[in-house]
Amino acid sequence: MSRPVGAALGRTGATIVLALTGVAFALPLLALLLFTFRVSGSPNALTLAHYAALVDPAQEYTYDGLFRGLTNSLGICAVTVAIVLLVLVPTVLLVEMRYPAMRRVVEFVCLLPLTVPTVVLVVGFVPVYKVVSGAFGSAAWTLAFAIGVIVLPYAYRPIQANIAALDVVVLGEAARSLGAGVVPTVLRVILPNLRRGILSACLLTVAVVLGEFTIASFLSRSTFQTALFLLQQSDPYVAAIFSLAALAFVFVLLLVIGRLGSFRPSRRTP
């Protein structure tokens, strides 16, 4: 009798903790949502005027900087995700399959940005970006090189955890024993099994890029967060609307990536 009772108490405790956590997350979001309907100077009045202002042609110039910053941030997201996919993923796979003795070194390098404050990193990025601006210009997308360093710990962990659970060395040897080359082995055997870890790394990368303010501010680049900071000084209601929209976007992206990560293609029977 004690084991079923203990299991029931454990489930009840877990439910209570999850419920309290959900309430702790939901209350600030509900308060922010309610704030977007408030009328300035009339706390009890509600209006949709702040939402209507977003599509008002007369307000186009007012919100032009915010939309431009959002476009820049989405471009930075694309470049940073490309860096993760084209640089970090091949590096981790190469170390795991060919140079396992270097695993600790790569892990140390990838986790190192967590130990250094972002402000300190920016001080080091300033002279580097003088060279970057000379080579690639001063467009906002060049921030992807700096943010790519910031996201290393967040992108590395899910990929490495997926690799550790998968044992890619055994998979690679099995594929090669059946006559597959190195490239087909990686593309057709290993990467499909790393889909969940790679998608999680991409999600965390997008979330970090959309929330990054310090680097863009110090390097004088227009991004979503810097534009939002300027807008909230003149129109806090629209700034709150875009903050909620960004949270909703990341949440939907999380659901999509979760669905893609659990997707299994159906096998056709002959």
Automatic annotation (TrEMBL):
This is ABC-type spermidine/putrescine transport system, permease component II. The chain crosses the membrane at residues 12-37, 73-93, 105-129, 135-156, 198-219, 239-258. GO terms for cellular component: plasma membrane. Signal peptide: none annotated. Keywords: Cell inner membrane, Cell membrane, Membrane, Transmembrane, Transmembrane helix, Transport. Belongs to the binding-protein-dependent transport system permease family. It is found in: Cell inner membrane; Cell membrane. It comes from the Bacteria. The lineage of its organism: Bacteria, Bacillati, Actinomycetota, Actinomycetes, Micrococcales. It is a multi-pass membrane protein. Residues 70-257 form the ABC transmembrane type-1 domain. CDD domains: TM_PBP2. GO terms for biological process: transmembrane transport.
